[in-house]
């Protein structure tokens, strides 16, 4: 492991965030002093662990404006998305429901797209809507798709590659007016934009701890209680989490998730204001070194920490990253980084393949310093300039 002095500038906070030291401190006792199973309520240590889990559940619920009993702990947003989409479809089918259409968007995370497509083998009709060039879903496109009776609509709140913020409240209301359930993957939205499930028509909402400075391996699914949303579980087992997600609850991870949610709710406005300033500082410095840089996605409707940048001159983004080893950035979703294909999100925006291959994703976060921003911008600019010179020789 590198020490802090030699660590690269980390600008990949959409892929994951560092664990906040306050979160680490909250977790530690539940590995050392009290390691009991939260389901072992026959003894004192088990009851203490259960109480810690329920306190954390309340903090996660407060972050999104839910009741604590509407929060189901999972292993992360991927599992939550699968449970929401497949669980809702399978429960409805098991009850004899006739609706078979399931709608999502071309720029969704792959776990949503694959969950929707998997349902085709079970007799459902997957519909994948296109987006505008700015990455936003046209409301009329959803209304048109909903003319066929629809079971479920799933739209990501904040895109994990281009950072655009969808009008989730409006889209949820449109879905609800058509009699469909509405799910949103809010892994990139929680702690960055206000969320109030009680004041919207959102039925199901997915969260991930490691996107809000909590530990990896823990997430949650909000399941609306009134009117009640019913799901078929993906796992068989001991019936934990209201029978929706069986398995021993990882108390240390849940406590960490709860603390991360508590901090995010209290410090979100301060965080986002500071991060927005860092983003503009970085962009100005990079534009000075790389004339012709282009920002992808809506400039107005986006989270503070995200920049998706196409480099001019046909320089491959992977080459730039190799030439700038002191900077940690990415070309797209970490879940798709093994693919040699350019980002499907950028292709959905209409970017030609050469431009998609010349695009970097920048993620600025809570712990990004001005010095890191300046160092990263300078190194990326030097790398691009060097590659351009090589190409001209």
TrEMBL record:
<keyword id="KW-0032">Aminotransferase</keyword>
<dbReference type="Pfam" id="PF00266">
    <property type="entry name" value="Aminotran_5"/>
</dbReference>
<keyword id="KW-0479">Metal-binding</keyword>
<dbReference type="InterPro" id="IPR015424">
    <property type="entry name" value="PyrdxlP-dep_Trfase"/>
</dbReference>
<keyword id="KW-0001">2Fe-2S</keyword>
<dbReference type="GO" id="GO:0008483">
    <property type="term" value="F:transaminase activity"/>
</dbReference>
<dbReference type="InterPro" id="IPR015421">
    <property type="entry name" value="PyrdxlP-dep_Trfase_major"/>
</dbReference>
<dbReference type="InterPro" id="IPR020578">
    <property type="entry name" value="Aminotrans_V_PyrdxlP_BS"/>
</dbReference>
<dbReference type="InterPro" id="IPR016454">
    <property type="entry name" value="Cysteine_dSase"/>
</dbReference>
<protein>
    <recommendedName>
        <fullName>Cysteine desulfurase</fullName>
        <ecNumber>2.8.1.7</ecNumber>
    </recommendedName>
</protein>
<keyword id="KW-0411">Iron-sulfur</keyword>
<dbReference type="GO" id="GO:0016226">
    <property type="term" value="P:iron-sulfur cluster assembly"/>
</dbReference>
<dbReference type="GO" id="GO:0051537">
    <property type="term" value="F:2 iron, 2 sulfur cluster binding"/>
</dbReference>
<dbReference type="GO" id="GO:0046872">
    <property type="term" value="F:metal ion binding"/>
</dbReference>
<dbReference type="InterPro" id="IPR000192">
    <property type="entry name" value="Aminotrans_V_dom"/>
</dbReference>
<dbReference type="GO" id="GO:0031071">
    <property type="term" value="F:cysteine desulfurase activity"/>
</dbReference>
<comment type="function">
    <text>Catalyzes the removal of elemental sulfur atoms from cysteine to produce alanine. Seems to participate in the biosynthesis of the nitrogenase metalloclusters by providing the inorganic sulfur required for the Fe-S core formation.</text>
</comment>
<dbReference type="InterPro" id="IPR015422">
    <property type="entry name" value="PyrdxlP-dep_Trfase_small"/>
</dbReference>
<keyword id="KW-0808">Transferase</keyword>
<comment type="similarity">
    <text>Belongs to the class-V pyridoxal-phosphate-dependent aminotransferase family. NifS/IscS subfamily.</text>
</comment>
<dbReference type="GO" id="GO:0005829">
    <property type="term" value="C:cytosol"/>
</dbReference>
<keyword id="KW-0663">Pyridoxal phosphate</keyword>
<feature type="domain" description="Aminotransferase class V">
    <location>
        <begin position="10"/>
        <end position="375"/>
    </location>
</feature>
<keyword id="KW-0408">Iron</keyword>
């Amino acid at each position: 492991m590198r020490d802090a002095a030699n660590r690269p500038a980390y600008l990949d906070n959409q892929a994951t965030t560092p664990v906040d030291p306050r979160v680490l401190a909250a977790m530690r006792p539940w590995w050392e002093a009290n390691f009991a199973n939260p389901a072992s309520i026959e003894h004192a240590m088990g009851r203490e662990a259960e109480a810690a889990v329920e306190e954390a559940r309340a903090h996660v619920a407060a972050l999104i404006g839910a009741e604590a009993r509407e929060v189901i702990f999972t292993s992360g947003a991927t599992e939550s998305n699968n449970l929401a989409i497949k669980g809702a479809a399978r429960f409805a089918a098991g009850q004899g429901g006739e609706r078979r259409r399931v709608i999502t968007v071309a720029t969704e995370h792959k776990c949503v797209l694959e969950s929707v497509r998997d349902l085709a083998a079970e007799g459902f009709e997957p519909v994948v809507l296109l987006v505008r060039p700015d990455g936003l879903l046209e409301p009329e496109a959803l209304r048109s798709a909903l003319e066929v009776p629809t079971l479920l609509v799933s739209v990501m709140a904040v895109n994990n590659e281009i950072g655009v913020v969808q009008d989730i409240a409006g889209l949820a209301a449109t879905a609800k007016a058509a009699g469909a359930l509405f799910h949103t993957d809010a892994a990139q939205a929680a702690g960055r934009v206000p969320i109030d499930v009680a004041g919207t028509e959102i039925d199901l909402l997915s969260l991930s701890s490691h996107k809000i400075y909590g530990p990896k391996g823990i997430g949650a699914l909000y399941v609306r209680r009134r009117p009640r949303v019913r799901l078929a579980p993906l796992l068989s087992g001991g019936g934990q989490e209201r029978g929706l997600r069986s398995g021993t609850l990882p108390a240390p991870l849940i406590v960490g998730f709860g603390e991360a949610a508590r901090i995010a709710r209290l410090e979100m406005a301060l965080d986002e204001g500071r991060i927005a300033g860092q983003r503009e500082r970085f962009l100005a410095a990079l534009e000075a070194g790389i004339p012709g840089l282009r920002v992808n996605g809506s400039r107005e409707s986006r989270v503070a920490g995200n920049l998706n940048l196409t480099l001019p001159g046909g320089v491959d983004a992977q080459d730039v990253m190799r030439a700038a080893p002191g900077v940690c950035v990415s070309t797209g979703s970490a879940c798709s980084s093994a693919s040699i294909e350019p980002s499907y999100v950028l292709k959905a925006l209409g970017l030609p393949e050469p431009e998609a291959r010349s695009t970097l994703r920048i993620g600025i976060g809570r712990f990004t310093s001005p010095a890191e921003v300046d160092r990263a911008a300078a190194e990326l600019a030097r790398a691009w300039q060097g590659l351009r010179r090589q190409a001209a020789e």
